[in-house]
Structure formats: structure tokens, C-alpha cells
Write a structure and sequence with these properties.
Elements (H helix, E strand, L loop, with lengths): L12 H4 L4 H12 L4 H4 L4 E6 L11 H14 L3 E6 L12 H18 L4 E6 L4 H12 L3 E5 L6 E3 L2 E3 L3 H12 L4 H10 L12 H12 L15 H19 L3 H4 L2 H13 L5 H12 L6 H8 L16 H6 L2 H8 L16 H4 L25 E5 L2 E7 L10 E10 L1 H7 L12 E5 L19 H4 L7 E4 L11 E3 L19 E5 L4 E4 L3 H10 L10 H9 L10 H4 L11
Parallel strand pairs: 1-2, 1-3, 3-4, 9-10, 10-11, 11-12
Antiparallel strand pairs: 5-6, 7-8, 8-12, 9-13, 13-14
Helix pairs in contact: 4-10, 5-6, 6-13, 9-12, 9-13, 12-13, 12-14
Length: 575
């Protein structure tokens, strides 16, 4: 808008400002909570959507952060209202937080729609909370600022720096191979997670909060601040002050999030060596705003964007190092030639203005553009008869010798079978085998868990094998690594070619040419397809049944079809 809105133009005015019986009830019940007229009447009502819970360690500090956001809202003349929302705790929630991402998205949207809210501050960070809350807020399209949880502090063990997730997989393989003992494993368990905050590697949490800042939906510099750093609560209060200004300005997600914003977010993810999960989430987020984004756009940008962030699992350092080296602002400064600098952000300025004063203080952590960690980004989209709708590989975290590989398939129908058989000493497997897991996609698992980093058989670990080609319709933790082909679409449960693979079939992986082929004739595949029977759905009732009937495939973002399409619902009647 060219002018600031008046109090009568606020959405909350319909609840509080009208002189009728219903508004009398709204005002009297607000006074019941101890607020006087002058504290809320004619002021922007700011919904603080808080995903804190006792079982989400990544968000353990959000009770305090919500109070700090409130402080900023009060300072700017707004009225803060904290509203708890479902907390998607990556370490604990089963079968997968991905099963519930869309539920949190629905809850966020409906909280904002059904209450007298003029603007929103979203408190998230643990993997699926970030995309879920953005999806809901974009659908509602009220002024919104995202406050990221921030990464936890570095882990430590016997003089070694530990990174969440990445070192779990690394040392678990070493324990299985017999190179470390139970005492060492227990010490790693005690030292790997030392503070509140999400994973401090470039896992899905750090990737998605960085993508949110690159989109322009968080304050500049906010996503890199460690959760335990005193700059973090100050950022929360600043976000509280800023959202009040945004409400008066009527600056909404639809004013910020265009094609340029998503291109810049994808570019940032690629330059960070970010999680493959970002592909699914960014597609879903973009589609909520009516912006077309597909796998091919990721692959196109990947060929021209260098990896500059030297962060595990693709690199050497951790998020705490990244922050003190200049953070995302420093990285974006070095990516300027790849970005759309004239677009707006929640800060009320352009991206170019947001980057004023940014510097890089350690070239080892944030590499110069002329000396990148990798000249081509570490994400590739593959297609072929095994994945006609596409699949992805994070080849920056793979053994280079396996990026062109042909080997016989060893197929596992579901994770239970994989777990039962993978370490059987009689298993017919060697380092040339291609491990295939199916029944792990959005419908098959259900909920598309992070099972894509299939374990290497113990008898091969003992021989020194540390990577193999692994293919699944699952996802993979952003902290994981290896030659893992993920998100195969359509998934096996939906009748994709993955359902037709048999032990011994040759599979050809060709990352340079972006191909994944099952070397079986079309005639034979036709016979197998005719004999295939669709599995029974996992759920017949409750949320699981809703999920199974409406979730889309990985290449479409795994959103619900009825949430991604169609006009927005009408504003609620105040009766």
C-alpha cells in the first residue's frame, strides 16, 4: 500500500471495534484476561504461533523467545497473542514428521483465519516446522515474519568436533565395523548435542531456515544465529517490532514471494550444499502461493551455482563457524551475481539493501566465488524408466567413483525387511550391488521417512566399504551422506517402476547425464506391471486416511491436493 492502514482497516477491528453484542463479548473476555482497553483496542493483533513442546529439544528455548517477541510487539504498539501449535519433533515423532507436516500447515492457516489476527510471527526451525508454518501462512496471506530456532552449539568428543546427524552415521558405521567400542559410543552420545537449537550441520533444519531468509520471510541475518547466542533473543524482539510495522504497511507474503524469491532460495540452498529435503518443501511452499516450481528448475540452477559453504556433511565446518564467518548474509554477498537483488523482503527493503554491510571473515568456511568448495552445486535431478517423474541425489556427499555405476539390484520390501536381512552374513551382496528399498514413500511407509541412507551390510563394512549405490522412494536426513538416490517418483506404493524391480536386475546410474535406468525390456516390465497388485492403504480412518487419500507425490511437494489448489476460503463471519 502507498499509505498506512487505519485502525478501522485492521482485520481485528471486526472482532473488537464494532458496537454490537458479539464484540461486547470479545472485549469483555479480553478484559477477563487482565487487559485494559488501551492495551488492545485499535492496535494490530499479532498471532505468535509457537511450536514449543517438552518433547522438541530443537525448540526448548521457544518459551523465552515467545516472550521476547511479545516484548517487541508491545514496544511497537501491537497486541501479542501467543497460540501454541503442533510441535513436529524430528527425533521423536513416528513414523515420520513428514506425515504430519501438512497437519501443522493446516493448523497454522486455520489459527490465523479463525482468530482476530492481523499479522503473524512464526516460531519454528526443527525440520518440518519451517515449511509447514510457511505453507499455512502463505495460504492465509497475512503479514508474517518467521523467527528461526537457530542451530545448537558444536558437539565435542575427545578433542573432535561433532556434528549432529553426520557424525552419528559416521561413528555408528565405525562401531558396527568394530573400530570404536561401547565406551566411546556412549561418550559421543553425551557430547553431540549441547544446547537448545536445531542441528548445527547443514541438515534440513539449517537448510530450510536459510531458505526462508533467502526467500525474504525472515529478518536479514536471522537464520545463522546460534540458539544460545544473545543475538538470538534480540533478533526475536526485533521481529516482534517489525511485524507491527508490516501490519500497518499491509506487507504480505504475496507481496514478497514471487518467482525471483524462489529462484534465490533455491540458489542459496545449492550454494550451502543444503538438504535434498528442500526440494520437496520449496515446491510445496511455492505452490501454496501459486508460483510454479519443479524439479527441472533445481537441476538447471544446480549446473550454474557453486557450493561456497564448507559445512558438513558436504564440507568441514558447522553452523556456529558459519555464523562467525559472516553467516548467510556473507554467503549471499558472494552470490550476488546469481541473485535478484531488487526484490522486497520482510525488512521493508530490497535484498540488496539487506546485504549492505555484510562481510565474510573466514574464507575457509565461506569460500570465495573464484575458489568454491565445488564449481557445480551438489544436487542433481535424475530421470529414466526407474524414475519417470524424477528423483534426486546429493552427489556432493557421495563417493565420486560411484556417480557412474551399473550393478545388480538387491531389493528390500519395506524397512522391516531391510533391518532383518541387511546384516545376514549369507546375504548375496558385494560392493557393486545396488541396494533398493521400496515401500518407503509418501503412501508406502507411510509419510516418507528418512530411510534413504540405507545401511551398508556389516560384512562389507568390515572389508572397508563405506559407500554403495542406494535407491529408494524415501527421503534422507540432510545430515546424511553417501550415494543415495531419493524421492523416486512415482513411488512403488503408487505403482511406479520401483515396484517392479527384482533381485539381480541391472540398474544404471549416470549422474553426469542425469539418468537412472532399469535395464529390463519394456515387454518384461509390461508383464510385471500387469501382475502387480496395489497394496492396501495403511489407514482406514483418522488423519492417516485423509493423508493417504490426498497426499501428492514427491515431485509435487507431498502437499494435500485440496490445500495446494483452489481459491482461499472466505473470511469467517462474526456472529
Amino acid at each position: 500500500m502507498d499509505r498506512e492502514r487505519t485502525p478501522e482497516e485492521l482485520r481485528s477491528h471486526r472482532w473488537y471495534g464494532v458496537r454490537d453484542l458479539r464484540s461486547f463479548g470479545h472485549r469483555s473476555r479480553t478484559k477477563q484476561m487482565g487487559y485494559a482497553d488501551e492495551e488492545y483496542r485499535g492496535k494490530p493483533v499479532i498471532g505468535i504461533i509457537n511450536t514449543w513442546s517438552d518433547i522438541n529439544p530443537c525448540h526448548a528455548h521457544f518459551r523465552e523467545r515467545a516472550e521476547e517477541v511479545k516484548r517487541g510487539v508491545w514496544q511497537a504498539g501491537g497486541f501479542p497473542v501467543e497460540m501454541p501449535a503442533m510441535s513436529l519433533s524430528e527425533p521423536f515423532q513416528k513414523p515420520s514428521t513428514m506425515l504430519y507436516r501438512n497437519l501443522l500447515a493446516m493448523e497454522t492457516e486455520e489459527l490465523l483465519r479463525s482468530y482476530p489476527v492481523d499479522g503473524a510471527v512464526l516460531l519454528g526451525g526443527c525440520d518440518k516446522t519451517t515449511p509447514a508454518m510457511l505453507m499455512g501462512a502463505i495460504s492465509m496471506d497475512l503479514p508474517t515474519v518467521f523467527v528461526p530456532a537457530g542451530p545448537m552449539l558444536r558437539g565435542n568428543w575427545r578433542g573432535h568436533t561433532l556434528g549432529s546427524g553426520s557424525d552419528v552415521w559416521k561413528y555408528w558405521d565405525e562401531k558396527r565395523a568394530g573400530t570404536i567400542d561401547e565406551r566411546a559410543w556412549k561418550e559421543i552420545e553425551d557430547g553431540i548435542a549441547r544446547s537448545p537449537g536445531h542441528c548445527m550441520t547443514m541438515g534440513t533444519a539449517s537448510t530450510m531456515t536459510a531458505a526462508t531468509e533467502a526467500l525474504g520471510m525472515s529478518l536479514s541475518g536471522s537464520s545463522s544465529i546460534p540458539a544460545a547466542d544473545s543475538n538470538h533473543p534480540r533478533m526475536a524482539s526485533t521481529s516482534g517490532r517489525r511485524i507491527v510495522e508490516m501490519v500497518w504497511e499491509d506487507l504480505k507474503p504475496s507481496d514478497i514471494l514471487d518467482r525471483r524469491a524462489y529462484d534465490d532460495a533455491v540458489t542459496a540452498v545449492l550454494a550451502l550444499g543444503g538438504s535434498t529435503n528442500a526440494v520437496i518443501h520449496l515446491i510445496a511452499i511455492a505452490r501454496r502461493g501459486g508460483i510454479p516450481l519443479d524439479l527441472d528448475r533445481f537441476d538447471t540452477l544446480s549446473r550454474s551455482v557453486p557450493v561456497l559453504a564448507n559445512i558438513r556433511p558436504s564440507g568441514e565446518y558447522l553452523m556456529e563457524d558459519f555464523y562467525y564467518a559472516g553467516g548467510l548474509r556473507g554467503l549471499l554477498l558472494r552470490l550476488q551475481g546469481h541473485l535478484n537483488l531488487d526484490r522486497p523482503t520482510v525488512g521493508g527493503r530490497t535484498l540488496e539493501q539487506d546485504l549492505e554491510g555484510a562481510e565474510v571473515y573466514d574464507d575457509r568456511v565461506i569460500r570465495p566465488a573464484e575458489d568454491p568448495l565445488q564449481r557445480e552445486a551438489g544436487l542433481a535431478v535424475l530421470r529414466g524408466n526407474l524414475a519417470p517423474d524424477g528423483c534426486v541425489i546429493k552427489h556432493s556427499a557421495a563417493d565420486p567413483s560411484l556417480l557412474e555405476h551399473t550393478g545388480p539390484a538387491l531389493v528390500f520390501d519395506g524397512y522391516d525387511e531391510l533391518e532383518r536381512l541387511i546384516n545376514d552374513p549369507t546375504l548375496d551382496v558385494d560392493e557393486n550391488s545396488v541396494l533398493v528399498l521400496r515401500g518407503a514413500g509418501p503412501l508406502g511407509a507411510p509419510g516418507m521417512p528418512e530411510w534413504g541412507m540405507l545401511p551398508i551390510p556389516e560384512k562389507l563394512l568390515e572389508k572397508g566399504v563405506r559407500d554403495m549405490v542406494r535407491i529408494s522412494d524415501a527421503r534422507m536426513s540432510g545430515t546424511a551422506y553417501g550415494t543415495c538416490i531419493l524421492h523416486v517418483a512415482p513411488e512403488a506404493h503408487a505403482g511406479g517402476t520401483l515396484a517392479l524391480v527384482r533381485d539381480g536386475d541391472l540398474i544404471e546410474l549416470d549422474v553426469p547425464n542425469r539418468r537412472l535406468e532399469l535395464r529390463v525390456s519394456e515387454q518384461e516390465l509390461g508383464r510385471r506391471r500387469a501382475a502387480w497388485k496395489a497394496p492396501k492403504p495403511h489407514y482406514e480412518r483418522s488423519y492417516g486416511a485423509l493423508y493417504s487419500r490426498h497426499v501428492t507425490q514427491a515431485n509435487e511437494g507431498c502437499d494435500f491436493d485440496f490445500l495446494a489448489d483452489g481459491p482461499a476460503p472466505e473470511e469467517p463471519a462474526i456472529h
